[in-house]
Design goal:
Blueprint lengths: L7 E5 L10 E5 L6 H18 L10 H24 L1
Length: 86
């Protein structure tokens, strides 16, 4: 635990059940009006939600992974054969 440090935070809880329960923002400049701080925090949280896909990350088909593995195996075999046979 850090002593002697005071942090100002804004906690945003979304209305609908989404990807997160709450977002916590550490406020750098607390001299700004409170409504501006809350509005900016909500804008950032909503922008994060809008940019997310349903799966959360891109899906790579298994055949592409298998093809990459096969290509790597063939390439490493060719390099090994060239080094050993020459």
């Amino acid at each position: 635990m850090v002593k002697g440090v005071s942090r100002r935070v804004v906690v945003v809880r979304p209305d609908e059940c989404g990807l997160f329960e709450q977002a916590i923002f550490l406020v750098r400049d607390y001299s700004a009006p409170r409504s501006d701080i809350v509005r900016e925090a909500c804008r950032i949280a909503n922008g994060y939600l809008a940019g997310r896909t349903a799966r959360g990350r891109r899906y790579t088909p298994y055949w592409k992974l298998a093809a990459a593995f096969a290509a790597g195996t063939l390439l490493s075999s060719a390099v090994w054969a060239a080094v050993v046979l020459l």
